[in-house]
Amino acid sequence: MDIEESGCSDTHPPARCGKAAVSIYRYFPHGGLQKSMMDIVLELQRRNFDVTIFCMSWESEKIPEKVTVRRLRISGSSSSAKAHKFDLALARVLKKRDFDFHLSFNKVSSADGYFVDDLPFVRTSGQIPLWRRIFSRRWRIYSSMEHQVFGKGNPGLIFCQSELQKRAYQNIYGTADERFRILPPGVEDIYRNVAPERRERRERTRNDLNIKDDEKALFFVASAFYAKGADRAIAALAALPLDQEVNAKLFIVGRNDETKLRRFAGRLGVDDRVFFLGARMDVPDLLCAADLLIHPARNEAAGIVLLEAICCGTPVLCTGNCGYAGQIIESGAAVVLKRPFSQRHLNRALRLLLTVPGSLDELQQSAAVTLIKDEFFRGSKLAADIIEERINRASGIE
Asked: Is the pLDDT of residue 205 over 90?
């Protein structure tokens, strides 16, 4: 179903109005993948592209100008069955339309380019017993779709965010080196000038959240609670010593099912110090209010929130498997845990930061004086450059 129809602007007609198809299973404003998609869509729009977004669901009242959203009606008993049907339906629709480039944010078979924000499905689900994988329809569908994208028969470009991602896919599928384009981070422009306003944002937001001056506010920001380690953060909070003056609260920001985490916090006796804020549009303000961003991810191909925190002058405690760990180590405003992960090591790192005088202050000072690099904000622009270059080459335009 078309939610909105639009075309190229008639006000300032471009020399050539490119037509781009973009596909994603679900769009909602708070997801990291969804934000990356919208940044690239807006950059293409600024370049006078006529963009059509194909999806199964669109959960936003806003649609950018000159962008068409087409929601494909897909039914199915599971998310994997719907993904497979979406792939087939999308291929049929695209055959009837003339697009210069199709960029997908999921692993579908019909794209010219793929934006990848995760690690291989067959790797991250490798802990599932072999017998369950053999009999799992979900496993068969997702592993097959992934193989279609990264296998040797597919020439499509792969936009990834780190060398870690590239190596992970190549190790499994032997994907050709020339297919990969590693993009710089795509931090939103709103983070460029947050630091000068940090004190004002911090005081206002901490007051709104009832965070007292003597309390340490730990923030976890992610939609995928399990993959990004929300339970690990709660466990670390619960392990803080009771015999010392450690007055800490943990704020969990993101859209996900909270039920299991609430029970977990209750079992550990910290449910009165763990607060679920849901999906929020004021993440820059929340990061300014934080004394520490804690991100003990199980799987994190990049971790844009790590850079967003640094842009807000907030230090980070994260696991070493985050794709952007190297960038935040350079800032001097982060503690990055060595691999493999140990809950004991996370507990100890958090305890030292909050109990050893000056430890957290030193990180905060480093974060406050970190120079924000232009490179942090170039992801969507470089992606659009590559798409334009590929279209021009196919059209014989130099």
From this structure: yes
